[in-house]
Specification:
The structure is a single chain. This protein has a domain at 21-139: Collagenase (Catalytic Domain), CATH 3.40.390. It is 38% helix and 16% strand. The protein has five helices and five strands.
């Protein structure tokens, strides 16, 4: 009986140490509507996304992976599962970098640009936000064409893709997030 109680106490302590963790969303520059991105990611993902505010890289010309590592070192705390950094880094740089083992992802909005259509860029950024949250949880891509996790070839393909998970992927996303101690949000009320 003592063993069982000890195991239960240790499990509760381990869970409590992880409870309340979230993704931290940072923006580089003032041209990112981080609150709208956070709202989209929380609504579609069902996990907590903390607004971390603006982030100014020490060397904006550094490689994106170096900027991501610095952002984690500068901003992550015990309540941060991973840092997601949005910014405009130039069209000559990658669309993004996602390194789950190092707890960060960076998305380059310049590569999501759509002929001056801010609504389209915002939707694409939200889709990519869901994708990198999944990657940070080590989830695979999905073959279902109506899932945000389906592969694509060109940025324009994002406009024809779903902006949310298919039901099995969403279920897996929530299960994986819970297993890793992320804060789950209450499901929206049914209409």
């Amino acid at each position: 009986m003592k063993k069982l109680i000890s195991v239960l106490v240790l499990t509760a302590v381990a869970f409590a140490a992880q409870a309340g963790t979230s993704f931290k969303l940072l923006s580089v520059g003032d041209n990112v509507d981080a609150a709208a991105l956070r709202d989209y990611m929380q609504e579609q993902g069902g996990v907590a996304v903390e607004l971390g505010g603006a982030y100014a890289p020490a060397d904006p010309a550094a490689a994106l992976d170096a900027i991501g590592r610095a952002a984690v070192a500068d901003t992550a705390d015990d309540a941060t599962y991973a840092v997601i950094l949005y910014g405009r880094f130039g069209t000559d740089r990658p669309q993004g970098v996602c390194l789950p083992a190092e707890r960060f992802a960076i998305l380059n909005l310049d590569r999501l640009e759509s002929a001056g259509d801010p609504a389209k860029v915002g939707r694409r950024a939200g889709q990519e936000g869901l994708r990198v949250m999944s990657m940070l949880l080590d989830m695979p891509m999905c073959p279902f064409p109506l899932c945000v996790l389906v592969g694509y070839q060109k940025t324009e393909d994002l406009d024809r893709m779903s902006g949310n998970f298919c039901p099995p992927c969403h279920e897996q996303f929530l299960k994986t997030a819970a297993d890793k101690g992320l804060e789950l949000l209450p499901a929206p009320a049914a209409d």
